[in-house]
Amino acid sequence: MTALVIAEHDNASLRVATLNAVACASACAAQVHILIVGHTCAAAAAAAAQVAGVAEVFLADAPHLAEHLAENVAAQALALIRAGHYSHVVAPATASGKNVAPRIAALLGVAQVSDATRVLSPDTFERPIYAGNAVATVQSSDPIVVLTARTTAFDPAPAAGGAATVTALEPVSDFGRARFVGREVSKNDRPELGAAKTVVSGGRGMGSAENFHLLEPLADRLGAAMGASRAAVDAGYAPNDWQVGQTGKIVAPQLYVAVGISGAIQHLAGMKDSKVIVAINKDSEAPIFGVADYGLVGDLFVAVPELTASL
Amino acid sequence: MKILVPVKRVVDYNVKVRVKSDQTAVDIANVKMSMNPFDEIAVEEAVRLKEKGVATEIVAISCGTMACQETLRTALALGADRAILVDTGETDLQPLAVAHLLHALVAREQPQLVILGKQAIDDDANQTGQMLAALAGMPQATFASSVTVHGAEVHVTREVDGGLETLALTLPAVVTTDLRLNEPRYVTLPNIMKAKKKPLDVLSPADLGVDPAPHLKTLKVVEPPRRGAGIQVPDVSTLVDKLRNEAKVIA
């Protein structure tokens, strides 16, 4: 059995999420291939060829593939899948993977297993439902299993040690009815939220967007990524891509510091697998204390500067 | 232009579900049900496009049991013009089947735009919009935070990792909604009364030539492993000491 991983990359390098997906794919099938779709992305393909456990890398490189539009990536994947003998197609459960994988599944006429957290056998998987309040074991009856892998559930495959061959593919023609207009990249020198070892998150208790800046020196000291609860995002205190929770990012860092976050179930769904959780909140009854390893009941506007100063 | 808005009836956002003791499913008997919040945002967006004079008709669709009529009446009260229920009875309805049913309805209704939620908060699948777009051969823009129609194109700003991305899609197209797209209005009593008089058709999967049988079998549903509460620390210096010497997560 062979699994095909749809790589997430920025044309120059692989994103870590791809390595998580490779780990999931290795648990599904004996052989793992990687597909790179993009433009001037030979470097990403070379990086993919180094990943431990990967046998073959396929590269589709063309100007109209530069922006990784779902329609074109799915069509490219489909051309490869139909020509090969794949048992599994795996994408990371990130904004990009979630965008593309269901198109591939639908065109193959098969179901998708979203957000797989465990591979029990080649056709049987665990996945969280209801914001992680339940875990379902599902079995596929399809000839090919399409799945997205929850990145925090699979330790990344080693980025080095492999020696896969890279094969260039004939690029599929442009879908033609979707056009890339532009991108606004939020400037950020911090680690990527989904892969950070430490995360500092703020909630509605921060009180305002200005107050949210209070968390920055703490995040700087800890070398942390910054996150937010949905309530803080809704209130406009923090950008949407900082949102941790059921409908935002799922994180599982070594250390998660929740500041002014009450701990709604939707938020807990996104961070309760963190190794160590610290909660700072003035409400001693806040549900966040129910999952925190270390809880500090008190005024965050006093505690956060004090914590920052003592690190 | 006509807009199709598929909506799903789900366990209300505020309900904490419990797993049944026989581990076959979560217990949804006697639990408050509501429209999936992302679908509510989709209805709101369609209504705003109609209020701007861009859309002329909004058709709300739901697939599921007859109880989904309630969800459709909510969509009608929010401003949809008519509704279609595909009665799938007690079938374990999965995204691929819903996408096939919606594809058949798209072929019938010929909408210019389909707007739906990016994910349902029960199965958390995040698949239906993308699958529908693929089956219908339409372009897609998922996780939308802004939707504007310019002639034969819709421009959609998407929430992606690390920022925002804007795409221009040639209509007809599929858009899935993210949280920041809009804040849905409240349903008013006069509009609930009006919604009762709006047309609601009921179809069967057979009427649409679709077999909604599931491809995934649920073998078991269990509670996630519980994470025990830890300790309360009296002050910041104790916290730092614990993190450094007990948990060893800071240097």
Helix content of chain B: 25-40%
Provide the low-confidence segments of chain B as ranges: none
Which structural category fits the helices and strands of chain B?
alpha/beta
Largest interface (C-beta under 8 Å): A-B, 89 and 79 residues
Unreliable residue stretches of chain A: none
Instruction: Order the strands across the largest sheet of chain B as they lie in space.
Output: 9-8-7-10-6-1-4-5-11
Q: What's the count of strands of chain B? A: 13
What does this structure look like?
The complex is a heterodimer of chains A (about 300) and B (about 250). Chain A is an alpha/beta fold and about 300 residues long. Chain A contains 9 helices and 16 strands. Chain A has helices at about 15-30, 40-50, 70-85, 95-110, 210, 215-220, 230-235, 265-270, 300-310, and strands spanning about 1-5, 30-40, 55-60, 90, 110-115, 120, 125-130, 135-140, 145-150, 165-170, 180-185, 200, 225-230, 255-260, 275-280, 295. In chain A, the strands form 3 sheets. Chain A has a 7-stranded parallel sheet with strand order 5-9-4-1-2-3-10, with helices on both faces. In chain A, strands 13-12-14-15-16 form a 5-stranded parallel sheet. Chain A has a 3-stranded antiparallel sheet with strand order 6-7-8. In chain A, α3 packs across α4 and α6 (about 215-220) packs parallel to α9. The radius of gyration of chain A is 21 Å and the shape is globular. The radius of gyration of chain B is 21 Å and the shape is globular. Chain B has a 9-stranded mixed sheet with strand order 9-8-7-10-6-1-4-5-11, with helices on both faces. The model of chain B has no long low-confidence stretch (mean pLDDT about 95). Chain B has 6 helices and 13 strands. Chain B is of the alpha/beta class. Classes of the chains: A alpha/beta (about 300), B alpha/beta (about 250). At the A-B interface, α3, α4, β5, β7 and β8 of A face α3, α4, β7, β8 and β9 of B. β11 of chain A pairs antiparallel with β9 (about 165-170) of chain B.
